[in-house]
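Cross-check.
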Amino acid sequence: MLRRLGWFDFRSLEPPDTNDPVVLAEEVLVYLCLQDVGRWNGVVGVITALLAFLEETVGTLPTSDQLHRLQAILDHDPVSRSDLHTWFDGVYGP
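Predicted model, tokenized:
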């Protein structure tokens, strides 16, 4: 599934210039899960893997309310990159 979504292209061609796991997770979500028109492709497994990665690296899991907010952001067509960034900052920011 990751190959089909473009994981290897992301890693080799367009990796973000950062060591920040939150920024990396946000960029992975956008690259793998948002179609060219900005619509979420519905692949929950990528979201689950990113949240697990962030729990391991940052030590934080989103609350139920925060997850509902993420779902609402992803369900909006097109997905607002600004709202998505604000969500990541709100959950994992300082």
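The chain has one domain: 2-92. Residues 20 and 58 are 10 Å apart (CA to CA). Passed to J.P. for a second look.
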